[in-house]
Amino acid sequence: MNFLRGVMGGQSAGPQHTEAETIQKLCDRVASSTLLDDRRNAVRALKSLSKKYRLEVGIQAMEHLIHVLQTDRSDSEIIGYALDTLYNIISNDEEEEVEENSTRQSEDLGSQFTEIFIKQQENVTLLLSLLEEFDFHVRWPGVKLLTSLLKQLGPQVQQIILVSPMGVSRLMDLLADSREVIRNDGVLLLQALTRNNGAIQKIVAFENAFERLLDIITEEGNSDGGIVVEDCLILLQNLLKNNNSNQNFFKEGSYIQRMKPWFEVGDENSGWSAQKVTNLHLMLQLVRVLVSPNNPPGATSSCQKAMFQCGLLQQLCTILMATGVPADILTETINTVSEVIRGCQVNQDYFASVNAPSNPPRPAIVVLLMSMVNERQPFVLRCAVLYCFQCFLYKNQKGQGEIVSTLLPSTIDATGISVSAGQLLCGGLFSTDSLSNWCAAVALAHALQENATQKEQLLRVQLATSIGNPPVSLLQQCTNILSQGDKIDRRGSKIQTRVGLLMLLCTWLSNCPIAVTHFLHNSANVPFLTGQIAENLGEEEQLVQGLCALLLGISIYFNDNSLESYTKEKLKQLIEKRIGKENFIEKLGFISKHEFYSRASQKPQPNFPSPEYMIFDHEFTKLVKELEGVITKAIHKSSEEDKKEEEVKKTLEQHDSIVTHYKNMIREQDLQLEELKQQISTLKCQNEQLQTAVTQQVSQIQQHKDQYNLLKVQLGKDNQPQGSYNDGSQMNGIQPEEIGRLREEIEELKSNQELLQNQLAEKDSLIENLKSSQPSPGANEESSATDSARDSEQIADLKQELATLKSQLNSQSIEITKLQTEKQELLQKTEAFAKSVPEPEQSETVTAAKATDVEGRLSALLQETKELKNEIKALSEERTAIKEQLDASNSTIAILQNEKNKLEVDITDSKKNKTIFWCCWLIRIRKYFH
Amino acid sequence: MAYAYLFKYIIIGDTGVGKSCLLLQFTDKRFQPVHDLTIGVEFGARMITIDGKQIKLQIWDTAGQESFRSITRSYYRGAAGALLVYDITRRDTFNHLTTWLEDARQHSNSNMVIMLIGNKSDLESRREVKKEEGEAFAREHGLIFMETSAKTASNVEEAFINTAKEIYEKIQEGVFDINNEANGIKIGPQHAATNATHAGSLFLRLAAQTGPLAHSLTLSSCPAET
Ligand SMILES: Nc1nc2c(ncn2[C@@H]2O[C@H](COP(=O)(O)OP(=O)(O)OP(=O)(O)O)[C@@H](O)[C@H]2O)c(=O)[nH]1
Ligand SMILES: [Mg+2]
Predict the structure, then answer these.
(1) For the segment A262-275, what is each residue's pLDDT rounded down to a tens digit?
(2) Could you please report the per-residue DSSP string of A357-384?
């Protein structure tokens, strides 16, 4: 307030005085007049004076104007005038055309008046409630006034709005206003409201700001829309930048998809207005906000994925390859694509597959690299390409391999028709443009980053320098250029070339003892480095000295002592002798003390205000951070300490190798376990099959046994064969019911035979009687007697045979039962084993023990199965034997029956004529069997 | 991902009752044993299925500390569902429910579905509030009730899903005006599938033209003989 009084007091008398009086009078009228019209007129008069006499109106009228806002709400006109007047007092916007020197003063005025206005928090709340008034005369100046307050004293006003109930939410309604002016100014108000305030940003997002703003952008025609689109984009950026919660909400709300149409500009020739360029720039920046390398890794990667899935990345790539795109848009597109693919394999793979629409089509990567090593391209564009290449290779071993492979002898296109990435990089590395040297060196270093394989692969690269001379390795060519650097006439700063090459060499040699050996193998290299470090050079050479010291340090730290002349120890002695330890370490420290170092270490993007600033690469600064300390330590250490450490390292390595050994063993055992598991399951399967086979055979054998039993019963009871069978009948195929039937028949035959025998006996006695009465003896009876004697002999034989068969069968069935129990056991074992197998996560010894156990059990199992198979084989052989015996006994039976038949015929013949009854019986029998 | 409906939820209740843990368990299936005090509001989202329909839940986890109350109040109006959480091992958090409920009823739309949650049910030995008390409070105020454990994940899914079911039913009954997004409900995009133009085809169309980058083919210095 002192300030205001000072200004007032310092003013000379004159017209100001009368104006002050007028203002005072007007204020009195506003305060005391009972007529609304009167008050309204007074406020209108104040408004007209408020621009010219901002200070006076401000000081004298502010409290009266606020009072009007409180009491005259029913009249929108007076409220409108009051708001306009307050706006004129508080805002600095209108004064911009006025003389320069008054600007500072007016800025102070604006914030002073704002401070007075917001001192009473209710004033802001009052203003917020006025914004709910739909009347254009109230709402519009209200919006402008609040925007002004926020611009003046953002944090304080934000805090007041935040604590007033639904404050933020109400302001969001402005975006839905159908009057474009209010909606557009509402966007500006929200811009000021959300600036640097995470809590408000979240509430605004919660109130569907994304949806609203994206709708407005679409309605306005995306990048072709006017300044409204620009304002919406700035607001979107406010809401998303550094606000992880909102970024997550944006992604989850599927709003990334809605960004894709923004970039459908590639192939139209609608021209590029300044507004369109601005809009597109902001759109690209918005994409970058979502995938910034500074976001939490998970957040960025999920946005990257979404951008590929919805085709946004693809759309950006078409801009990249389209015609007529302004250079700065192209540059920003390259930067955007870079961050969309960075560290995201799917996107990197896609990017590698993009082709430029040239004839023949070339990979986009190749076309981009051409621009990077092309002096005529703008500097920022070249930086962007380098960034893109770096992002393509970041955490992308596959991509690194592909790039390095284009340099390897086997893949170089001998025809020279198509240029490869590798060739372009080599070309850049050895061109006469130092900027190209630096970019190519850094790009190549990124192809080696954290990739031991490619570091070794690159050692294979040989270059043909000139016709007739032997080829020289890429590694050697780099050091050659370093040492003869001064002889070549270059455009641009020489330091850039050397710094680039040294960074490449440091990256290449770190963590790669083979590369160190290759490097040391050339006897010129170490003297060159020590020479550089030892020399007392000017300030501008300090960085190169530092880098040389780093390279030498790396050659010591990652040295595997495979070169007799350059062991760790010898190199350290060399440093002590030629440079001095302290001197060496001081030179090493030059790197991180360089003025451009910390800037490069902050962000991955190579972003330099001008070419001279292009010195450090971000990834390289990480390497320096990692190695500076350890190299210093290594240099300071005495040889004894070194030896001790070596020993410790060795034992550690041994431990490591032991651990690796065990790990391998575990891995192998895992594999074995897996194999064994599979074997077990196949064995189990086989086992089951065998079991069913055995069961089948057992049942077959059982059948045979039954048949045998039947036969036995038959034969056992038939001391004499009776009845008659058909010649062709075979016992083996006979079914049980048939057997039953046969048995009955046999029974019948038996009784018949008995009858017959009785009859025969009768007849015999009759014949005897007849004989005694007749002189000729009966030959028939005699032969019949011998026949039956022979029969009974045969039957005895058969019985004997049957008994042996029976015992054989018995032993077989015992064997089968045994087999079955064995099988059962086996199956149980298999199951138990299978159960014990699927728990490999136990400690290694347990696993090993289990494995051997499993192996033992398995071989036992296999053995048992083999035995089983043999047994089954033996069994089936026995079965065949039994079958044969059965056949034999069948045929014997058949013979017996035949004989019996014959006998019967004989008997019949002999008795034929003696009795009619006998004949009738015979006929009956024949009939029966037919 | 296409969804049929989108519901906005808020989670409210005293500090330390486990609101953030409930959300984390629901979205990430993880438990966070240390109290990571929420500053203002944090966002989380997940898709669920109800009645065969995909429903996207957008959830705002609010800070329970008194000092953030004015900020968190801004979220009541636009929410379709609220999880009001207390800690069964701390009676004071149960006693404060009335205040929370009044606040919620005052600032939210009248149809907002409120689910009362007694959290930390795994700490039975330290229980201070009986389950019956929670049930009684819910009955009295017309809320749905559940006891959950963000630690063991017991009932966590159910709490979020049952709230969604209730909202879904209210939509079916026509209680909610689904065309007013201020209610915290949104109907899914009818045609969510985007026809991503394949970049390759565009390249073909552009093949005849030469852009600034393609142009550089002729300008670029010849690569060194290798
Ligand atoms: N045993 C147990 N502990 C829980 C459970 N839920 C949360 N906790 C613990 O309670 C503490 C607070 O949990 P938060 O989820 O951070 O609490 P909050 O409600 O979000 O607190 P504010 O963010 O301050 O509002 C943490 O230490 C959690 O580990 C639960 O179900 N069981
Ligand atoms: Mg929390």
Answers:
(1) 998 855 566 788 99
(2) SSSS-EEHHHHHHHHHT-TTS-HHHHHH
